[in-house]
Amino acid sequence: MARTVSEFMTAHPTVVEVTDTLQAVAQTMATQDVGSLVVAEDGAVVGIVTDRDLVVRGLAQGIGLDAPVGQLATGDLVTVGPDDDVDEVVRIMRERAVRRVPVVSGDEAVGIVSIGDLAVDLDPDSALADISEAPPND
Predict the structure, then answer these.
(1) What is the spatial distance between Cα 87 and Cα 4, in angstroms, rounded to a whole number?
(2) Using CA atoms, how far apart are residues 2 and 93, in angstroms rounded to an integer?
(3) pTM for this one?
(4) How far apart are CA 40 and CA 72, in angstroms?
């Protein structure tokens, strides 16, 4: 029996609006101890932003803290549905070289699945699974 994305995803991801400032987004990441957030416009998923995006594509390029997150969000977004086959998601992640994929129902975020989530369940003896299960460095 095929396993679905809903078995691996983190449900109820935090969603920020394209108009939220980089500073507000960074504070949300820090408060929630997460490295990525789903970006929406009027509730519809349009992108994803990572802590690396904030640093490399934001701060390093001189973009100010008051800039809207929509300016940095990944626009060429890959999404999956909660009922999609997990093997298909792995293939997509491999082909598109992405580490996190928003899980969308309609155009609303219902979850997020990461390469770490998949490693923990699909390859629990892997180094990635060990790292994903380890407590964060503070």
Answers:
(1) 8
(2) 18
(3) 0.84
(4) 13
